[in-house]
Amino acid sequence: MMTELRRFRVRGYEGCAFQTQIYGTFKSHKNRKHNPHSLSDFKAGVVKVTVQSASPDDGPTSSADIDDSLSDVDIDALVEELHYLLSTVSVPITCSSLSDFFKNKNIEVDGVVVNELADLLCKSNPLVNALVKSGALATAYKRKEYFKKVLNIIEPVEYVLDQKKSRSFQYIPILRSLQQILDSICVLTQGSNTDQLENQQYRSIRDGVYFKENPFLSSDELKLCLTLYIDDLNCVIPWRDDVKAYGYGKILEPLLHDLVTLEEHGVFIPKLGTFVKGTVHSVIADNLGAHGLAGFIESFSGQYICRFCTAQKVKIQSKDVHSGAFSLRTKEIHDAHLKIAQDTETSCFGVKRACPLTEYLQHVHVSTGYPPDLVHDLFEGIVPFELALCLSILISKKYFSFDSLNTRILKFPYKWSDKKNRPHIIPHNYSSRKTIGGNAHENWCLIHLIPEGELAWQVILDLKEIAELVVAPVHTHETIAYLDVKVSEHRHRLLELIPGEKLKPKHHYLEHYSHLIRCFGPLVDVWTIRFEAKHASNVEVKNVSIVPGDVLNEEVVLAVRQKYPDISQVNLTKNCTTRGINYRNGMILACGSTAGMPEFAEILQIYIVRDELSFIVCLYFAWYQDHFRAFQLTLSPGREVALVQLEELTDCYLLVAYTVGSRRMVTLKRHIVIRGLILIIYSAV
Q1: Cα pseudo-dihedral 575, 577, 580, 584, rounded to 10
Q2: Measuring CA to CA, which residue among 635, 595, 598, 601 is closest to residue 616?
Q3: Where are the alpha helices (DSSP H) in 202-285?
Q4: d(Cα 199, Cα 219) in Å, to the nearest integer?
Q5: Rounded distance, CA 488 to CA 322, Å?
Q6: How much is the pLDDT for 553?
Q7: Which range among 251-265, 518-532, 567-581, 613-627 shows the weakest confidence by mean pLDDT?
Q8: Domains in the chain, please, with CATH?
Q9: Of 317, 314, 303, residue with least CA distance to 352
Q10: Peptide bond into 36 cis (omega under 30)
C-alpha cells in the first residue's frame, strides 16, 4: 500500500471516491470512514499476494543484497499498521474462529456475545497494549528505552577529541560490560574453575611464566584476567589518523580510567555478592598495532625492529637469537631505554614513547604484555615468502611445471575444512613478488598438500612442522625444546638453499617463539585470528533423529551399551558443531594411542547420549609413512566399532583422509601430546 501511495494517487476502498498520495491523510481517512475493514474491502489491484516457492537448488541469500536500514518513520508506520491489524482487522477473523469452535462443540452462543468476546480477546493482546499510544513500544524513544531495560543494552558513550574539528569516538564502558557478562551463572562457573592441570604442561596463559610471576593475577583470590585486542584495519576502524593526531593515551583515556578502577576497587558481581578485581594480562595485535600502542618505532625498515629483544636489523642476517647476541627486553632494560628516549626526545633501542597501559596500570608492563601474532608472522609472512622461493627452485629444476602445480591445486579433491580454505592458484608473478599470496587459512592448508622434493622440499617440510608445533594447543618442555631445534635447523637450511636472500624480521620473531610459549602459554590462545572469526562454545546439532535401540546396527548397539547399558534410544545426527569445530560422518579423529603413537578412527555416526556428544567410530591401525610424512590407515582386522565421547579424543581437531595411489593417508594439522609425550613426526600428504 505504501508503494502504491508513493507512485499513484490511490482510491483505496471499493465504493469510496476518496483519493490521496499522502500516507498520513490516507490513514486518517481509513480510521474515520473504514474502521473496521478487511482485506476484501480494498479495490482490486491494491492488495497483491505473491506466492514464491523456494527451489531446492537455490543458494543462500546474500546479506549484501538486502538493505536492512529502516527510518524511524517507516518503523512507526509499521507499528501503527501492526496495531491496526491486531486490534481491528483481526476481530472478524477471531469472531469467525470462535463461532466455528462453539458450533463444533454444539454450544449455542448469541452472535453479539461472540462479537464482544472476539473484540475483548483482540484488545487484551499484550502486543496490542504495547503498541497503543500509551504503550511501551508506541514510539521510537519508548522502544529504545524498553529494549535498553529488558535486553540490558549497554550504550556507547561519545567522547569529544576536538570540538572545532568535530572529532569524537564511541566507548562502551568496560566495567558495565564485565558486570553484565559475569551476571551469567555459566560464565561464573567456567571462570571459577581452577582445576589443577597436569604438571610440566602449557595449556593456557595461566601456565605461562608471565601469569605465574604476576603476583596480582596469580594470587589465590579470584581475579579477572583481561586480554585486549587492537585491530588497526582502516576500513573497519578509521581511527589511525586520530591516533597520530591525539595519541593512544587521549583516545584510550576512558578505558584506562575504568581499568584503574578495576585494579584498585574491582567490579561488583551481584551473583557473588562481592567486588572482583582484575587487570590486563596481554594486548593482542599485529606487529604494527603492538608497536604503536607499546611505544616502539612503527617502522620495520629501521634499525631496531623487535619488541622482544634489542636486535638490530642488519645483525639478524648473521646471528640468531640462540647465539645470545641480543639482550631480551626486561622491565629494567625497557624502563632505562624509555627514560633516555624521554630525556633526549629521540628513540632509544627502538623505544619511542611510554605505553599508556603501563603508565596507568600497576600490574601491566610493555616487556610482558605483548605476545607475538603467529598469523601475520608465519601464515601471512614466512609461509608465502618461503613457498614462493622453494617453488621457484623446484620448478627451475623441472620437478614439475608452473601450470601443472596450479592444475594440481585446482583439481585436488579437498574435503570439508580443506575445501573451504582451499589454496588459491599461484600467481604468475610469484617469483618476483617473493610471495604466493593467500590468507592464513589457505596457506595453512597448502603446506599440507605439496609434493616432496630435495633441499627445497626439506625446507618446506621444516616449515610445515614448525607451523604444526606453534599452533599446538598443549605444550611440554620437550615440545618447546624441539621447536627451538627445528627453528634453528630451518634457518640454516634456508640460508643454505638461498644464500643471497635476506631474512625477514618475521624470521627473527619466529626465533623467539619457544621462549614466548614459556611466557604466554600456547600461542594459539593469543593470536589475532581468534578475534577475526566466531567460535561457538556450545553444541549446535542439525537434523536430529530419535532412534530406538532396536533398529540400530548390532555392532552399534553393542558399542553404545558397553558404556550405557540402560539406554533404550539415542539422538542421531550427521552434523554437529561444538567448540568451533564441525564434525561430520566420514571425518577422521585422533583416538587413543599405542606406544606413544596415535590411533585413528573414522566417524560412522554422531550421537547425543544423555546430552553428551559421542561418536560411533570404526577403528583403524596407523602406520607412519616417512615417504609421505603422513599416516597410512588400515582397517583393524576385526573391523571393531566403538563409542567414543568428545572428552576421550586424543585431540578434538578433526582430520581428513586422502587417497594416495591405493593407500588412504591422513596428515595431522597440529602436533599433539600423548600421555605426556610429544608426537615428534612429520605429517604431510
Answers
A1: -30
A2: 601
A3: 209-212, 240-251, 253-264
A4: 19
A5: 8
A6: 55
A7: 567-581
A8: 2-45+72-149 (no CATH), 157-295+354-369 (no CATH), 374-532 (no CATH), 539-678 (2.30.30)
A9: 303
A10: yes
Mean pLDDT, residues 615-640 taken together: 80
Cell of 512: 623467539
Q: For the whole model, what pTM was predicted? A: 0.72
The pLDDT value recorded for residue 47 is: 54
CA angle 215, 220, 223 (to 5 degrees): 75
DSSP 549: G
Q: Long-range contacts for 658-662 (Cβ within 8 Å, ≥24 apart)? A: 658/413, 658/415, 658/685, 660/628, 660/630, 660/685
Name the one residue in this structure whose C-alpha cell is 600467481.
427
**How far is 356 from 311, CA to CA, in rounded Å?**
24
**pLDDT tens readout for residues 140-151:** 888 888 877 777
How many angstroms separate the CA atoms of 508 and 306, rounded? Answer: 8
Digit-coded pLDDT (tens) for 298-357? 888 889 999 999 999 999 999 999 888 999 999 999 999 999 999 999 999 999 999 999
Q: What is the pLDDT of residue 681?
A: 39
When comparing pLDDT for 61 and 320, which is higher? 320
- Measuring CA to CA, which residue among 646, 573, 562 is closest to residue 612? 646
Sign of CA dihedral 620, 623, 627, 629: positive
With 0-12 / 13-18 / 19 or more C-beta atoms within 10 angstroms meaning exposed / middle / buried, residue 531 is: middle
**Mean pLDDT, the chain, integer:** 78
Name the pairing type of β-strands 201-202 and 475-476: antiparallel
What sign results for the dihedral spanned by CA atoms 210, 212, 214, 218? positive
How many angstroms separate the CA atoms of 117 and 228, rounded? Answer: 59
Q: What is the pLDDT of residue 680?
A: 40
At 517 the three-state DSSP class reads helix
**Residues 341, 256: contact at Cβ < 8 Å?**
no
283, β-bridge pairs: 228
Q: Which residue has the higher pLDDT, 29 or 294?
A: 294
